Amino acid sequence: MRRNGCGRPAPTPAPMPQPVAPCQPAAEPVCCDDNAEYDELNGMPLAMAYVPWQEWRNLYEAEKGFHKGTIFEELDKPFKGMGMGGCCR
């Protein structure tokens, strides 16, 4: 038994912690990858969209239309934030 300078037994050193491999999380799909393996819509049939013709009615004056980003009052849909949809969930 080792003794320190004052005659008492030297304290037993604490065991050194062993390095632990960091925990690796399971790879999760990234929503914007081009990898079809994680595409939830892969293999589903394509759809055909229908977009009606824009009617020339309820027009803003040029200056107001420039400020709003459209001359069509019907298309003036201000952005209200991320309340609905979007990639970030």
UniProtKB/TrEMBL annotation:
Residues 1-25 are annotated as: Disordered. Pfam families: CotJA. It comes from the Bacteria. InterPro entries: Spore_coat_CotJA (IPR020256). Residues 10-22 have a biased composition (Pro residues). This is Spore coat associated protein CotJA. It comes from Sporofaciens musculi.
